[in-house]
Amino acid sequence: MRESNIEEIPITFAWKWSGKPLRKRILVKNTEDLETFRILLAAFHRQVKTLNKIVAVQPLGILYLRCERFKENTLPSPKDLLVVIENTLPRIGRAKIDALAMEAQDMQTFLEIEPRTTENYVEYLMFLENATTKVDQMELAMDYTKELYDIIEEFKVPCGAEDISNYSGFSVTLSSLRTYVEMKVSDKLKIISKFNDQINKDISSLIQEVGSIKDEATQPWLIDIESNLEEAKKMLDTYVTQLEDCQKRAAEYRAHQRAFKLEVTRFDMLDEVMSDVKLRQLLWESVGEWDKIVEQWTAVEFSTLVPEDMGAITAKQVKNIHQFEKGLPPNLIVPRFKENVEAMRDKVGTPAFTVYCLVIVFSSTVFYPNNLYSSIHQLPVITNLRNPALKQRHWIKVENTLNHKFIPDEVITLKLLEDVGVFLFPAELQEISGQASSEAGLETLLKKPLVSFFRTCTGRANQPLYCLDRSTVHVVEAVRDECTSIHSAKENSASIGSLKAKGKASTRIHLEFRLDRCMRRRWKTLEFVVLPHRDMKDVYILGGVEEIQQTVDESNINMNTIASSRHVGPIKPRVDEWIKQLDLFSTTLDVWLSCQQSWLYLESIFSAPDIQRQLPTEAKMFLIVDKSFKEIMRRTAKMPLAMQACTAPGVLETFNNNLDLLDQIMKCLEAYLESKRVIFPRFYFLSNDELLEILAQTRNPHAVQPHLRKCFDAIARLEFGSHFLVEEETFDEETQGEEEQEEEEYIKKKEEEDQKDEEKEMPLMLLTLDIIAMVSPEGESVNLGKGLRARGNVEDWLGKVEDSMFGSLRRRMHMAMKDHRRRSRKKWILSHPSQIVLTVSQIMWCSKVHAIFNLPTDQEKQDEMVEFENKNFDDLNKLAAMVRGDLEKLQRMVLCSLITVDVHARDIVTELVREKVTSESVTCRLITVRLAINCSVRGWGLCQLGDGPTKPPLKLLAGYGRAYDSLQEGLGRRDNFEWLRQLRYYWDEEHNTCVARMSSATYIYGYEYLGASGKLVITPLTDKCYLCLMGALQLDLGGAPAGPAGTGKTETTKDLAKALAIQCVVFNCSEGLDYKMMGRFFSGLAQSGAWCCFDEFNRIDIEVLSVIAQQLITIRNAKAAKMQRFMFEGREIKLVQTCAAFITMNPGYAGRTELPDNLKALFRPISMMVPDYALIAEVILYSEGFESSKVLANKMVQMYKLCSEQLSQQDHYDFGMRSACKADSVPADQGSNPIHSIKAT
C-alpha cells in the first residue's frame, strides 16, 4: 500500500458510567476504503438517533429510571465523532481534487511544449506513450472522488461551495485533457517523423565529429619512429576517450530508433575509426612494454628467467605485429619492432615435450642416448641453458665452447651471456643440453621410480603420486615395466630378436596410451546437458547431445583402429569391453531421445484434466511412463556423467518398456481423435496438435475461440451471453442490534488485518454458455437464434453451431428478400449482413431480367432492357457516392463487394442490350434446327455407299435452309447463350432455398458464412473458369485450372466456393505427402461436404498420385450412386454430396509430375492466362468510389507496364497485379479527396 493512501483518523468513544470514563480508540488508516466511512457515518447517525429517542424518565413499577445524565454524558460522543469524520471527508476530497488538478495541469503543460532536441523528443514520446494510461488512472481516482462526494451528499456532510465547484469543474478539465491527449496520440506519427529528422541531424553531426577525429588521428607523426612515445600515447588516449563518447551517443541513437521503430543507422565509420585508433594506441603501448620487459630480462639473474613466460610474451607481441602489418599504413616502427621481437623469439623458443614423445623417445634412449631429441625440433639457446639437468660438468663444457671462464661469484645475466657470444653456438649448446637430459634420464631410471622422472619432465616434480590421475600412473608404470624388460634383454643378449621385442613393446605401449587417452580421459568427464523443463520442480530433460554424438563417433573410430592393429593381443579384452560399452551407450541414447521426444509431446496433452477424464486408461499408462522418466532424469541431473548414466543396469530395458507404452498410447490417441473427427468432420482439416488443444479445454467453451478460424473460414469468434453480479449492502433500523455487532466485528477485523488495503469490489460480468451470434474477422455479427448452448462435448456443440449457421443465414436471406421490397436500397444495404446483401441483390437482379424476358413483344423487351441498363448505371453511381461518404469500415467493405458484383451485372446487361437478347430459350431451338440439318446431310452421305442417291434431295435441304434462315432472320444477332452462361441466383419457393445456375448446371446454395470478405473482380477469364468448374460439378468431376503463377487459379476456385457459399480448404502439396495423409483429408471432405483446392498438385510423387486416383474414384462412384454412406479406406463413413476436389498446376516447371490417365479423367481442365489488368483496376477503383474509373485504370495499367519494362528488375521493385491492386485500393473519401489530384494529374 502506498504511503499517500495512509492517514490516521482518531475516533474516540467516550461515556461515563458510575463516574468512571470508558474510552475506545479506533484508527482508520486506509482512506481509500470509503466503505469504512459509510459504515461509521451510518453507525454514528443511528447512535445519535437512538440516544435522542431515550426518554428522560422511564417508570419501572414503583421506580422511576432517570436517563438525563446518561443521555447528557453519552450523546456528545457520537456527535463529536461525526464532526471528526465530517471534517475529514471534505479535506480528503479537496486534497484529491487538488492533486488531480495539479497532475492534469502538469500533463497539459508538458504536452504543449514543442520538443527541440533529440532528448526532448525521446522524453516527449515516452511521456505520450504513457499519457493515455495516466489519464485512465486519473479517471479511476476521479471515480473514487465521485463516490466520496456521493457519501458527503448522502449523509449531508457540510462541504464548502468552493470544494463543490472544484469537484464539478474538474470533470470538464479531465474530459478536455483526454481529448487533448488523444489528439496528441493521433499526431504521434508526425511527431516521430519530426523526431526522425532531428535524430538524423544529430547523427550527421556525430559522423562529422568522427570524421574530424579520424583526420586528426591519422596524422603521420602518430606513427613516426621519431615521435615522442609519451606524447603520442597521450594524444591517442584523448582520441579514444572522444570516440568512446561518440560510441555512447551512437548507441543511444540506435536505441531510440529501435524503440520508435525507425530505421536503425549503422555507424560503420565510427567502428572503423575506433579500431584504427586503438590499433595505433596498441602499437605504442606494445613498443613501450617490450622495451621495459627486454630491459628487465637482460638485467635480472639468468637463473630466474622462465623460458615459458618469455615465450608467451614474445608470442603475444608477434600476434600484435601481425595485426599492425595488416591494419596500419607503412611505417618504420613496425619493421624495427618486428625485428627486435623475432630476434628474442629465436633466442627463447618454447619447449615441445608431450607424453607421447616421452614414451617413444625414452624407449629408444635406454640404448641410444644421442637420439633423445632426434624427433623433437631444436630448442633455442636460452631454453637449452635453462635446462634443469645441466650439472657442473656440463657448464665446464659450455665454458670451453664459449672460450670464457665464469667467475664463481659473478652474477650471470642475459646481457653477460650475449656479450660472451653465447648465441653464436646454438648447435653446440643444444648438444650439451641434450646430453645432460639423457644422462639425467638414465640416473633417474637407476635411482628413482619412473614416476619421479615423469613428474620432472611434465613440470610436476613437487606433486605427490596421488595427485596424478590413474591413467597417467598406468601409462608410466607400463613404460617402466617395458623399459625394464628391454634393458634385461639388452644385458642378456644383443640379438636381433631382443631388438624386435623392444619394438613390439613400444608399439603396445603406444596402443595402451592411445586407448587410455582416447577413452578413459574423455569419457571420465563427459556429461549430459540437463535442462529444467518448463520451470517445473525436479523435472528435467536432456539438452543438446551434439558433442556427445561426436565423441561417440570419434571413440568408435579409435576403437576400430586399435582393434585392427596386429599388436592388440595383450589389451584385446579391454578393447572389446570398450566396444561393448560404446554399443550399449549408443543404443540407450537413441532410445532415450526417442522416449523423451514422445514424452514431451504427450506430457502437455495428458496434463490437461479434460484429456485425463476422456482417456482414463491411456492417462494411467502415461502416468507409469511419466513417473519412470522423471525418476531417471532426476538421477541424471544429480550425476550427469554420460557413460555412467547410459550404461547403468536396467536403463535400456526401462526405456524400451516406456517406448512400447508410449507407442500404444499414441495409437489410442489417434483412434480417439478419429472418433472426434467423425462427429465433427471439420476437425479433419486441423492437425493433431490443434485438435488436442481444443479438446484439452472442452469444459471451457470460451477457450475454443482462437481455433474457430481453423474450422470456419469467416467466424473469428462466437458471442456468448452475459449477466452482471452486483452485491449491495443495506441498512435496516429494525435489525439495529445485529448491525452494531457487525460493525464492531468489522472494526476489530480492520485492526487485526494490520491495515491491509482492500480494493473495492466492482460489479462482475459473467459469460454464460448461451451462444448468441457469430462474429467475422471484419467485425460483422450475425445472430444464431435462440436455444443454442455450448454444453457437452466440443464436437457436439460445434456441430450445432454449424447447423445454426446454415439455418440462420437461410432465414436472414428470406427476410432480406421481403425487406428489399419495403425499404430503399440505401437503407437495405446497411441493414443486413454482407453475404445476404450480395446474394439477395443478385437474386433480385436476375428476377428483373427474367421479368423483362417475359414481356409480350421483342420491342418492349429491348426498350425495357435499355432502361434497366441505365438503372444499373445510376445504382452504381449512387453506391460510389455512398463509398465516398462517411462510413464505418465494415459498411465500406460491404459496399466495395457489392459494387464489384454490380459492375459485372451491369456489363452483362450491356452485353444483352448489344446482342439484342430477348429470350433465354431461343438458342435451344436454333441448335435443334442446326442439328437436324447436319444429321440429314450426314444421313444422305452414308446412303451413297449403297444403292441410294449420291446427294440429298434439294427439296429437303431447301426446306431446312428456309427454316434456318427465317429463324436466324427473326433472331438477328441474338445469342441467348450470353445469358445462360452467366452465374445466376434464384429463390426456389418450393424448397424455400437459394439456387445457383450456370448453363445447364444447378447448384443449391450452401449457406456457409462468408463474413464481409472482399470479392474477386469477375473478368471474362473468371466467367470461363466458373463455367468450366460448374460443368464439372454437374458431372461429379473436379476442376483443374492450369497456368503460370499469378493468373488466379486458386483465387478463382475459392471465389466460386464463396459464390456458392461452400467451405473451401486450400492445401499446398509437396513431395513429402503420402497416401495416408491424403486419405484422411479426403475422408474429411466427403463427410463435411466441403471443397478442397490442392495447390501445385503435380508436385506429389507419382506413386502417391496413383493411390489418390483410386481414392477419388471411390468418392465419385459413391456420389454418382447417391449413397448416404460408403466404404472408404476400409471403414464406412457418411457422404455429403456437395464435396468436391479441385487441383491447380503450373505446367513446365522443374520437378513436376505428369498425372496418371485415370487421375486426369477425374478433373476437367481449363487453361488460365494473364488476366485483364485494366478491367480489374477499373472495378477496384470504382468500388473505392472513383466514378471515372475506366480512364484512371488505363492510365495506371500503362504506368505499371512502362515501369516494369523500363525500370530495374530488382526484387524490391514489384509492378505485378498484386502491387497494382494494392495501389488501386485507396478509398476516394471526402477527407483526402484524391480524385481531384488524380484528375489534375
Automatic annotation (TrEMBL):
<feature type="domain" description="Dynein heavy chain linker">
    <location>
        <begin position="511"/>
        <end position="814"/>
    </location>
</feature>
<feature type="domain" description="Dynein heavy chain linker">
    <location>
        <begin position="377"/>
        <end position="448"/>
    </location>
</feature>
<dbReference type="InterPro" id="IPR026983">
    <property type="entry name" value="DHC"/>
</dbReference>
<feature type="domain" description="Dynein heavy chain hydrolytic ATP-binding dynein motor region">
    <location>
        <begin position="1005"/>
        <end position="1220"/>
    </location>
</feature>
<dbReference type="Pfam" id="PF08393">
    <property type="entry name" value="DHC_N2"/>
</dbReference>
<feature type="compositionally biased region" description="Acidic residues">
    <location>
        <begin position="729"/>
        <end position="745"/>
    </location>
</feature>
<dbReference type="InterPro" id="IPR042228">
    <property type="entry name" value="Dynein_linker_3"/>
</dbReference>
<feature type="region of interest" description="Disordered">
    <location>
        <begin position="729"/>
        <end position="759"/>
    </location>
</feature>
<dbReference type="InterPro" id="IPR042222">
    <property type="entry name" value="Dynein_2_N"/>
</dbReference>
<dbReference type="Pfam" id="PF12774">
    <property type="entry name" value="AAA_6"/>
</dbReference>
<feature type="coiled-coil region">
    <location>
        <begin position="222"/>
        <end position="249"/>
    </location>
</feature>
<dbReference type="InterPro" id="IPR013602">
    <property type="entry name" value="Dynein_heavy_linker"/>
</dbReference>
<protein>
    <recommendedName>
        <fullName>Dynein heavy chain 6, axonemal</fullName>
    </recommendedName>
</protein>
<dbReference type="InterPro" id="IPR035699">
    <property type="entry name" value="AAA_6"/>
</dbReference>
<keyword id="KW-0175">Coiled coil</keyword>
<dbReference type="InterPro" id="IPR027417">
    <property type="entry name" value="P-loop_NTPase"/>
</dbReference>
<feature type="compositionally biased region" description="Basic and acidic residues">
    <location>
        <begin position="746"/>
        <end position="759"/>
    </location>
</feature>
<dbReference type="InterPro" id="IPR043157">
    <property type="entry name" value="Dynein_AAA1S"/>
</dbReference>
